[in-house]
Design goal:
This protein is an alpha/beta fold. Helix content is 45%, strand content 18%. Bound molecules: nicotinamide-adenine-dinucleotide (NAD).
Amino acid sequence: MLEHEEVLIRTGARSGLPIIIALHSTALGDAVGGCRVWPYPDWQAGLADALALSAAMTLKCAAAGLDFGGGKSVIVLPPGTASLGASRRDALLDFGDAVNDLGGRYHAGEDVGTSAEDMWIARERTPWVHCLPVQHGGSGEPSELTAVGTFAAIEATWRHLAGTSSLAGQRISIVGLGQVGGRLAGLLADAGAELTVADIDPGREELARTLGARWVDPETALTAEADILVPAALGGMLTDEIVPRLRCAAVVGPANNQLGSPSVADELARRGVVWAPDFVVNAGGVIHGTIIDMAGGTPEEARKATLQIGDRLTDVYREATAAGIVPYEAAIRLAHRRIADAAALRETAV
Ligand SMILES: NC(=O)c1ccc[n+]([C@@H]2O[C@H](COP(=O)([O-])OP(=O)(O)OC[C@H]3O[C@@H](n4cnc5c(N)ncnc54)[C@H](O)[C@@H]3O)[C@@H](O)[C@H]2O)c1
């Protein structure tokens, strides 16, 4: 059964590229979610990604206490294509038209493969794109708050495991040293953690050196002996094959959709590894976008809301322990409860 409210799929009139917008739920409010530009084997694979990512956005907004629903868009690049290249402007105008046709039920921002400048191009066709460049009234880089929220989640997880949130001397292994992973590594280094880091981009080794972190290849970082493993690259890293090889006490990271399949959450628990649900951990970016760009709030308000991620995760761990379920299940229950409460409130109001 399709659980999405609406899915728009079209061939861009200018670019000829598949443009997909998955609108999962507007139960809590208009749907929000980034626009991903990525090469897929075919448009169906792009659609599958948009469907999964938009469902995760619904959970993310609900669990973060935001009155927004979940959506996501994908511009499908042909296999082996690294970026939009010469068709960038055409594709983004096509994308803006598609967002506009949803009449404001979906609000877009940047995601993997797009930038604030790209959102400014799409803005030529619709008012419902956000996260614009600072010189055009945007709020700047959201990954700062994503890193802050992930740091709060790591502290909460360590408190859950060891009774203290102090990360001094704890071994933390980070896979992916990009916008979020790089900033998070800085916060963790300042907290005195012992860092192992990896990225497929050799250009990131310089940052590792600056932070005094051990630089290894991604495979080594993923399976390193560590207190906390931090997936901060693309999703799908936690597979049935990799889980038996993990040597960490917990996995807490910003990457979206980390589980290869939902059953991996059970397998992690069976092996005694605490997995912090990604959609709770990485809500800092959407908090940034919705509070500052969409609601006109201040950076301080967004930061305060982001720091609550630690307490929310503690509630998730508490509920999981009390109910004898994995944190993933507890977080989904929390999100569904919020959505059901909102629906009940609306019915009372009618
Ligand atoms: N930027 C945000 O605010 C935000 C918010 C929520 C979730 N996320 C998620 O967090 C993750 C990281 O986001 P980002 O903005 O830092 O992206 P990014 O593209 O800036 O960084 C990702 C980094 O991972 C590296 N990488 C890719 N594949 C790798 C692999 N197999 N092994 C090791 N390194 C690899 C890349 O070279 C890059 O440096 C993504 O999954 C993203 O969806 C980001």
